[in-house]
Amino acid sequence: MAIPITVLDCDLLLYGRGHRTLDRFKLDDVTDDYLMSMYGFPRQFIYYLVELLGASLSRPTQRSRAISPETQILAALGFYTSGSFQTRMGDAIGISQASMSRCVANVTEALVERASQFIHFPADDVSMQALKDEFYGLAGMPGVIGVVDCIHVAIKAPNAEDLSYVNRKGLHSLNCLMVCDIRGALMTVETNWPGSLQDYTVLQQSSLSRHFEAGMHKDSWLLGDSSFFLRTWLMTPLHIPETPAEYRYNMAHAATHSVIEKTFRTLCSRFRCLDGSKGALQYSPEKSSHIVLACCVLHNISLEHGMDVWSSPLTGPMEQPPEEEFEQMESLDLEADRIRQELMLTHFS
Question: Are residue 138 and residue 212 in the same domain, yes or no?
Fold first, then answer.
């Protein structure tokens, strides 16, 4: 006797013939507390994302029914903030785990397409000066327009032969370069670098470095820790401070640079798919890098909507590969060293 088997077509559910939507979940049917606990964001923020991404998530096809943009966004937020395709998450919005995976892919690409809209340096001189003033007000470090650092995000092994993503702890990861302002808003995000690359190599090869080397922001600089080389546009701490001015410089540097450390902790706390607590991202390096970038876009959008970057409950810092020995990181750039010495003499003596 033949046993009938029902095969669910995930593409049929997702896109739909005649573009009718599958709406098993309504935002108006649940409380704000439920949305925050399940998806990590309030109702008005989700409505904004529906308006922002709706056109990209409503591509008509020849199939019969589609999952609505609203449901796709909830599925993606559920994954970003929990780090897993839990059965209860799909059940809550009425879709399968396979459909959830497709929703995450669609929403991720829609957010990546809009990354430059939300992640960028200020375009005008007034805003750049405001950045400097805000950083100076924090710890007395002049001329700073951003703090830079790298963070590793664990991914599955691309294949047995490819060791380029194996970091110094022997784990597969992406080494992601980011720059933030004093509020924790990200102004540069590069998520595609293999985990085997050391931080200074990532920066050296980055578009961020080319941008600053071209002299786009004269009389301004970023702050980076001792895993980077000193540059005319990148101030690093002294490895062995000796004078009172050098100690004061290092203290101001550390207080200012801590902004991006807090930003990393908040990013990983809000988007648990990045912190490794539920395991590595189970995607190719390219797709994983897009997920990281999508979370960074959402981070900046949340700031624009008044969600304090420090409002998420902070966990301990994500465990990172050990940093390099710092002795070799002192720069041979004489002009950069002159600028740092002048900075200490003028502002910290």
Answer: yes
- Select the more confidently predicted residue: 320 or 45: 45
Q: How many domains does the chain have?
A: 2
* Nearest CA-CA partner of 42 in 1, 90, 14, 77: 77
Q: Give the predicted TM-score (pTM) of the model.
A: 0.87
- The contacts of residue 17 (CB under 8 Å, 6+ apart) are 61, 62, 63, 64, 65
48-85 pLDDT, tens per residue? 999 999 999 986 654 446 788 999 999 999 999 988 76
Kindly state whether residues 109 and 125 are assigned to the same domain: no
Scanning 54-152, the segments in alpha helix (DSSP H) are: 69-82, 87-93, 97-113, 115-118, 125-139
Q: Which two tokens stand for residue 272?
A: 């648990």
In a domain, residue 209? The reply is yes
Same domain for 144 and 166, yes or no, is yes
Structural domain that includes position 47: 32-56+66-116
pLDDT digits (tens, 9 = 90+) for 165-200: 999 999 999 999 999 999 999 999 999 999 999 999
- Kindly report, residue by residue over 235-294, the tens digit of the pLDDT: 999 999 999 999 999 999 999 999 999 999 999 999 999 988 878 999 999 999 999 999
- Same domain? For 142 and 81 the reply is no
Separation between Cα atoms, residue 100 and residue 10, nearest integer Å: 9
Which residues are CB-neighbours of 37 under 8 A, at least 6 positions away? none
Among 95, 116, 137, the domain boundary falls at 116
- The contacts of residue 99 (CB under 8 Å, 6+ apart) are 10, 13, 14, 67, 75, 90
Residue 320 lies in a domain: no
**Pair (197, 277) in one structural domain:** yes
Same domain, residue pair 88 and 109: yes
| Average predicted confidence (pLDDT) for the chain | 85
Handedness of CA 301, 302, 304, 305 (dihedral sign): positive
CA 216 to chain centre: 24
